[in-house]
């Protein structure tokens, strides 16, 4: 049932309500889309997007695999917002893009609170990585997937003139172990296995990554998971895509499939098993490269080799725990196996972080998310209380991964952001928002990038990409980005 919102008072209509959204990834622009299109016809919104980078789109631009341009179509929502409501607005709502502005540093959270009736934190949850507490985990050839993804997707933090990210020496590596089997792990596997010229050259992959992949000597990629087939974190679409590469698949141990009671499985799991069975039983492809899915194994030690590379990874074999209350739990056995590899890539999850000023503002971040209830940010007064006695921070909201933790596809983020937007509209309609002083000082943003400047860079990237036969040529260095924008 669609929500109904109370009418805004004449006092509210005397001037637009001001909304700030921190982050321009899917969590941010889907929230804005819903606010702008579902708000009462009587209300005006002045909405400002704040983005740390000079470029919009967040995880869509820097997280989605280069060979998935259809997933990046979600960016059309951000483009439509700026086309419909940017500039002088449309007579009702007005939207600005303020890129190259880092909230918590360039602008404090307290300053935001002095200037906006509602503030949505949607800055993502990809600032750090989950870690393994095992010997060798800090070796240079044990690489977080997040960093590898940001490198091949051209994230400017990894192309800085100082402290530039150094990618793994793929031209000196034969075998790679990817720890984890979610969709990010499969993206990384495709990067390593697919033919660089046939598969990647026309995409928006960074040119530096393209050049290194063309020199790559990687022959085998193993994708290792601690649990079984039914607990695989990848989607059926992603695993089918990997199977369809012209690369040899090393079939699973037949016993793993034989143990499954397919009749009791749901539709998605049945489809997953049938896909794996189909390709396990198919004739092997003629290819110099190969890959494998390996289950019930956990790394216990990364063993150093020569030239800052690994020699091998030692795994413990796991087995189902046979716990009726925890049917997906596994336990370690006494059996170990050591596999040769020069590189390990950890795809075991992301970590977020709080912004400077959370404590002063009276909100808190732990458990890999900003504490909130249905998108409404909780005050630190709520600590130790049950949800029925929660105390909210008026006017503050969360959307995207910072709301629920780093999980879920873009479609999930969309629906969840709509829920946050609904709660914002409900609160605005019921006079629950930050009351602003009539004489509040305007924010000074001398280095902010506006939408017109971003479009200059966008036009350059598309034109240069067309010249090179690519979907887009990504400018990766921040200073070069800014040069193209002015």
UniProtKB/TrEMBL annotation:
Superkingdom of the organism of origin: Eukaryota
Enzyme class per UniProt: oxidoreductase
Signal peptide bounds: none
Oxidoreductase listed as a keyword: yes
Chain positions recorded as FAD binding sites: 51, 59, 103, 401, 408-410
MF (Gene Ontology): oxidoreductase activity
Keywords: FAD, Flavoprotein, Mitochondrion, NADP, Oxidoreductase
Binding site for NADP(+): 181-184, 226-227, 238, 408
EC number: 1.18.1.6
Required cofactor(s): FAD
Subcellular location per the Swiss-Prot or TrEMBL entry: Mitochondrion
KW Lipoprotein (keyword) present: no
Domain FAD/NAD(P)-binding intervals: 18-241
GO cellular component: mitochondrion
Catalytic activity: 2 reduced [adrenodoxin] + NADP(+) + H(+) = 2 oxidized [adrenodoxin] + NADPH
Family as reported in the entry's similarity comment: Belongs to the ferredoxin--NADP reductase type 1 family.
Protein name: NADPH:adrenodoxin oxidoreductase, mitochondrial
Classification of source organism: Eukaryota, Fungi, Dikarya, Ascomycota, Saccharomycotina
Gene: ARH1
